[in-house]
Design brief:
six-stranded mixed β-sheet, globular, five-stranded mixed β-sheet, tt1808, chain A, 203 residues
Length: 203
């Protein structure tokens, strides 16, 4: 039974004893982070945990639509592996993110592990309304630093898909695609998506 914290008694408190079983912020190790059992998306940065807001239905519908298209394309051509969050991707030692969708080419199978991947070749993020800057700026910089060849930013507000391709350590805008256009991958030359279809059920 869910607890409505707005009406909970003033003397009610979280079960702090449980919290004391875990490391303090700043003191988490990578193995402790990877051993955390939760159905929430939790990212890791230099010993700190970042617990992300739970995505809503519209967000999840977009992710599922894109995941299905990408997975069918990748699997039919045996190009590699596609996964969706929650699944950790290590960008560099001490930094893990959990992209909405992540692709790793078959040539890089040695970077796949049961609990996480070392980097990726393509990531897709649907911009979170609670913190757009995280996907538009922060992760753009981090994914480029990690050497991820392609980053798609799917933004529900202007209904656009921005495809970024890595050049000389930073991202170049391959295209900002809107309704009536197809977002085209650079890394996967035969993969494109009709933008209008991505946002069709998001009214």
């Amino acid at each position: 039974m869910a607890v409505d914290f707005r009406t909970a008694k003033a003397d009610s408190e979280p079960t702090w004893e449980i919290a004391y079983l875990f490391p303090s912020q700043g003191a988490w190790s990578e193995p402790e982070y990877l051993g955390l059992q939760t159905n929430r998306c939790v990212e890791y940065s230099d010993g700190n945990l970042e617990v992300l807001a739970m995505p809503g239905e519209r967000h999840q519908r977009i992710v599922l639509f894109l995941l299905q298209l990408l997975a069918v394309h990748v699997h039919s051509l045996r190009l590699g592996t596609v996964l969706m969050a929650p699944f950790p991707v290590r960008l560099w030692p001490g930094k893990f993110r959990e992209p909405d969708i992540v692709f790793l080419h078959a040539d890089h199978d040695d970077r796949r592990h049961e609990q996480y991947w070392d980097g990726a070749d393509l990531v897709i993020e649907v911009v979170s309304p609670d913190d757009p800057n995280r996907d538009l700026v922060t992760k753009r910089d981090e994914y480029a630093r990690a050497g991820i060849a392609e980053y798609w930013i799917v933004d529900r507000r202007p209904r656009t898909i921005t495809v970024l391709t890595l050049e000389d350590g930073s991202y170049r805008v391959h295209g900002v695609f809107a309704a009536g256009e197809r977002a085209q991958s650079v890394l996967l030359a035969e993969f494109s998506v009709a933008v209008a279809e991505v946002f069709a059920d998001n009214d």
